[in-house]
Design goal:
about 750 residues; alpha/beta; Alkaline Phosphatase, subunit A; 2 domains; 8-stranded mixed sheet; 4-stranded antiparallel sheet; globular; Arylsulfatase; hydrolase; LtaS-like; cell membrane; transmembrane helix
């Protein structure tokens, strides 16, 4: 046996000494794949498995180089593949920075949206590390240069061909053997996740970059083919899904009506799509002043949902518009705005139109961005007022017309619409508060330094000191942009009120998604010491890391329903809620119902029932835990208060702004470990036994179902194609006046369905 392995080793050594370019290509590709994992998923997964997979995949790629007769031809082939691989690893690194996921070939159709946000990509998303992958191109070129100097003599063309054939077979065989060994290490869960491609972080972390990308290409092609042939299978699942509604609904929401049923019927509706607004901003103070005083006023006077998540995917703003309107999830393959806008969806806009409402939208960007001219028509809008077609572009900030100018010009349009229509629904899409936020610096006067007083022994006086804090940082620019957006909203409300346009109107505001601020920015925010103008590092006792749980839990956005009419008592609703819950919640208030809604009227839950917010990647959050299906871990939310509003210097001193420096107190700021938010405390909340495995499996299975059924509706135009059959199989089973939601989350402790990995 030892002789056998020595013989194999000798052949391998000889082969690669004769073909160093093949070895260089494999080595370069494997190193880049490893670097990608280091920069993204880090070491959260087994490192041997993806390494084997990457070597096997690149050996198979390299084998085809021997189809070319000359060294030059083989170099051209390997360089072409190398450039493609480099683009993929760099692209995945950049993409992960923004979406915590990886590229898919199904997203090629969204490439048309990239030019509009290229400035944001370069300034806010790309990092120097993303350029590191480019080393592979000159490395392979240098290898080729040295290979050219070697002399190669072949007796004749037949022997050349035979040798190339042997080399092809040997390289491919090595790749296949290694691939077989790798395959033997995989579990059923691994194969299931590879096939579904929802859990992309897990797939890349386990299978390596090249296997993931190959599988994704096959999956993307298969989904297109399957859309032509898989309708009957999905229709059966669709019908079964909704037929299960009655038993589950009665357990969680037995009451058909609640205190909010019909309270806004007959009122006009203003919806504010608040660009990149995160909820923690509403609890943020800068030198003792509220960052968002107008949003906070609306929250105090309205129904404020402080535990709300947007559920968007790669379609970002357009995904939120879609989910808000339809109570469906974003598409798992491609985006609705680009790929599936022409389906027949049941939307808020269409249901209000049936009640006699005039439906319109306004935006300070081009109508072609995210295909909104088509998307808005499909959702049921009568008119889309946009950019230069309907507005005077007198002030631009960032991507288009400034919010203040946009709202100022919108008021007379709303007044004209109000005069011509008994009832109307208007959606206003804000724009200025869009990444990269840097353009706001030229118009904002918000001070994001930290001010305090310090005694000067030379003068005997206390002097004002201004520590830089957030000045010149991306988070600082974001706070300035948020403050500007809040000012614009405040002026818009004042102008509408002065025209009497709020008297018979319900005002609805939602944040469309988080700001895509990187964890490193938050770590600086949490660990900054203004009294020494320093930032703690990992070696310091008081350092607070921003792990995936701290980061993702902070991604919640505001959702507020407000009216002047006094139809409700102001209230903060802390129960977890998602964008897909908006349509049924508003429907209960405005008097319409969508039997295909995947979300729920948030006021229909009994006190002991939990809602669940499902994210497009399969993660979910309840009032008890946040579950990361990528890593199979959960975070205990019991008594957890968002770290972003708890430990930064501006928050600690929000009630005592401009403090007088005292060496004994302020001199020790950030000196000791914060027992509540340190790394150990965070880790102690992970998989701590607050819930059992049945709880996780039940909700994970529910998440799987929700995503699958939503995709079926989107991909196959299921509502339009099965409406008659649905009426016969589902509506006949219930009272026509029932306001019950169709599908509720599983009861705590009840295992509704077996988890599907």
């Amino acid at each position: 046996m030892l002789k056998f392995f020595k013989k194999i080793g000798s052949k391998l050594k000889k082969f690669y000494s004769e073909n160093p370019m093949i070895l260089a290509f494999v080595g370069i590709s494997v190193i880049n794949g490893f670097l990608l994992r280091v920069f993204t998923v880090k070491f959260a997964y087994n490192q041997v498995k993806p390494l084997m997979a990457d070597i096997a995949a690149t050996l198979l790629m390299a084998a085809f180089a021997f189809c070319f007769k000359t060294l030059k031809g083989r170099f051209r082939y390997l360089m072409t593949v190398n450039v493609i691989n480099t683009i993929l690893v760099a692209g995945n690194s950049i993409y992960y920075s923004n979406y915590k996921s990886f590229l898919s070939f199904s997203l090629l159709s969204t490439g048309s949206q990239l030019p509009g946000v290229m400035d944001a990509v370069i300034k806010n998303i790309m990092e120097p590390k993303d350029l590191l992958f480019l080393w592979s191109i000159p490395a392979l070129a240098v290898t080729y240069h040295f290979c050219k100097k070697k002399t190669r003599t072949y007796e004749n063309q037949n022997k050349q061909k035979q040798k190339r054939s042997r080399n092809f077979g040997f390289t491919a065989a090595c790749g296949l053997v290694l691939l077989g060994i790798f395959a033997a290490t995989l579990s059923g869960t691994d194969y299931s996740r590879l096939r579904k491609q929802w859990n992309r972080e897990y797939v890349l972390g386990t299978f390596g970059m090249y296997t993931y990308q190959t599988s994704d290409a096959i999956s993307s092609a298969y989904s297109k083919i399957n859309m032509m042939f898989g309708y009957e299978e999905k229709k059966e699942a669709f019908t079964e899904f909704y037929d299960e509604k009655d038993e589950l609904t009665e357990e969680v929401a037995p009451e058909k009506k609640n205190d909010y049923t019909g309270i806004f019927e007959g009122k006009n509706v203003i919806v504010i799509h608040c660009e990149s607004m995160q909820q923690f901003c509403m609890d943020t103070y800068i030198n003792g002043e509220e960052l968002t005083p107008n949003l906070n006023k609306l929250a105090r006077e309205g129904l404020y949902f402080s535990n709300f998540y947007a559920q968007e995917s790669v379609g970002t703003s357009s995904d939120s518009e879609f989910t808000f309107a339809t109570s469906l999830m974003p598409a798992s393959s491609g985006t609705v705005a680009i790929n599936y806008w022409d389906r027949d969806y049941t939307t808020i806009q269409k249901m209000l139109k049936e009640k006699g409402y005039y439906i319109y939208s306004m935006h300070g960007n081009n109508g072609s961005y995210w295909n909104r001219l088509n998307l808005h028509s499909s959702l049921g809008y009568d008119k889309f007022y946009n950019y230069s077609e309907d507005f005077i572009i007198d002030e631009t900030i960032g991507l288009g017309l400034s919010d203040k100018s946009f709202f100022r010009q919108a008021v007379p349009k709303v007044k004209a619409i109000n005069e011509e229509n008994k009832n109307w629904y208007g959606a206003f899409l804000m724009l200025t508060n869009h990444t990269p936020f840097t353009d706001i610096e030229r118009v904002s006067d918000l001070d994001v330094t930290f001010r305090y007083k310090r005694f000067n022994s030379d003068t005997g006086l206390y002097e004002d000191v201004s520590a830089p804090f957030l000045q010149g940082t991306k988070l600082g620019s974001y706070f300035k942009s948020v403050h500007y957006a809040d000012e614009a909203l405040g002026q818009f409300l004042t102008d509408l009120d002065s025209e009497g346009l709020l008297d018979n109107t319900v005002f609805v505001l939602y944040g469309d998604h988080d700001a895509k601020i990187k964890p490193a920015e938050y770590e600086r925010y949490l660990n900054y010491d203004p009294f020494t103008d320093t930032v703690l590092t990992e070696e310091d006792a008081g350092y607070i890391p921003v792990d995936d749980f701290y980061y993702n839990i902070n991604r919640k956005t505001p959702f507020i329903i407000w009216s002047k009419g006094g139809e409700y008592e102001p209230k903060e609703i802390t129960q977890v809620m998602g964008m897909y819950d908006v349509q049924p919640t508003l429907g209960n208030m405005l008097g319409f119902e969508n039997k295909y809604a995947l979300g729920h009227d948030i006021f229909s839950f009994t006190e002991d029932a939990e809602n669940a917010v499902i994210f497009p990647n399969g993660n979910f959050i309840t009032d008890t835990v946040y579950y990361d299906c990528q890593k199979g871990t959960y975070f205990d939310l019991t008594d957890y208060k968002n770290v972003m509003i708890s430990v930064s210097c501006n928050q600690v001193y929000k009630d005592t702004p401009n403090p007088i420096f005292n060496e004994n107190t302020h001199g020790l700021f950030k000196f000791d470990e914060d027992e509540i938010y340190c790394a150990n405390s965070c880790e102690a909340r992970v998989n701590d036994g607050i819930v059992d495995d049945d709880y996780i499996q039940s909700y994970a299975g529910y998440a799987d179902e929700i995503i699958d059924i939503s995709n079926a509706i989107i991909f196959y135009d299921m509502i339009n194609k099965t409406e008659q059959g649905f009426e016969n199989s589902v509506d006949a089973q219930r009272d026509a006046d029932s306001k019950a939601e169709l599908f509720m989350p599983p009861m705590p402790g009840r295992r509704r369905t077996q988890i599907v990995a």
